[in-house]
Prior knowledge:
The chain is of the alpha/beta class. 24% of the residues lie in helices and 27% in strands. It contains 10 helices and 18 strands.
Amino acid sequence: MSHDARHIPISDYDYPLPQDRIATHPLADRSASRLLIYREGAITDDRFHELPHYLPPGTALVLNNTRVLQARLFFQKPTGGQIEIFLLEPYDQSIEDALAAAGGAAWQCLIGGASKWKPGQVLRKTVTAAGREAVLTATYIKKLEDSFVVELNWDPADTPFSDIVQSAGAMPLPPYIKREATAEDAARYQTVFGRHEGSVAAPTAALHFTPELLNTLRNGGCTTEFVTLHVGAGTFKPVKAATLEGHHMHQEPFSVRRETIRHLLAAPRVVAVGTTSLRTLESLHWLGVKLDNGLIDDDWSLGQWEAYELDEKFPGTTAVQSLGALLRWMEDNEAESLSCRTSLLIAPGYSFRIPSGLITNFHQPQSTLLLLISAFIGPQWRKVYEHALANDYRFLSYGDSSLLWRDGEREENP
Length: 414
């Protein structure tokens, strides 16, 4: 890898995406979506429920088991104007602590109508949470560089915030789905295996899985391994700078269980389900490199360009070495899970260490997600996307899927 990734022009990763190719609603059957398979330059078309035919026994499927928050809160000003508060992440505590909080918590937010809401002004609404009436208030605290800090309080104070937001909030559909969220979205913009609330966007590659399909995969010799990365609104943040050097990736929290790392070390091949799972896996590798070289104190985080710098300092470090270092540390410290943060930006020139395959939807032009796809399969991304456009695939979050194999992928982890 090289620092040249910083100088990649985003204009090189554009393609025409007609509005009518963006899926605005999910299919009735999750697994009925189309599946494009790319391997060694060849493309095959199928349906997602046929995925087991394309994954050899022994494949470890890595899935993100985050759940999407009902992150859009609407308040009415006394004068009649509407203010939308879009929850991004807790301001000064973990997502788990903030959702379990009773009585109040400060959140980093986006605000619709911010110019009409003065600092210190309190907004109020009544909701029904966990079968009880509750009063929710929001106070504008301060403006940050690209977001705001809002203090939320509620009464009765013994109601967890997770119950409040579940009742008071709306599902945060992506901005390119230009309609209001419905009751259908509350179920379909979640994966069937999601367990841990904290995302403001779904890990959409996993929306295609049904319990029946997961059972078929397991019966066929695949394993399902779960990580948790809470997806931030930055996943939709467009690259406005001319080159990647001017784009800022937000940090996202993730956690991985010790048993999962042990299984990854034993798996003959790893397939990441979604870009969030892939970034989690690769972030784990580089955190293991840092740990193995004495570069971690209490800061389990990975910066946007840090992987590229680490690769220059410690070339050739394998996933067996990095994951092995993490596993030994967790065993020595009796840690059942590892909680970290990452802002890793994967761009062409990046050298992957763990997954040989990727299941993912079709992404927006000039997005960091498209850059990741290009890094994974190289210039052939254009061939894949041109094929999908020419063959009526549906794009973006509620769209169709693809299974991409890295060229020359090996039968075992490196």
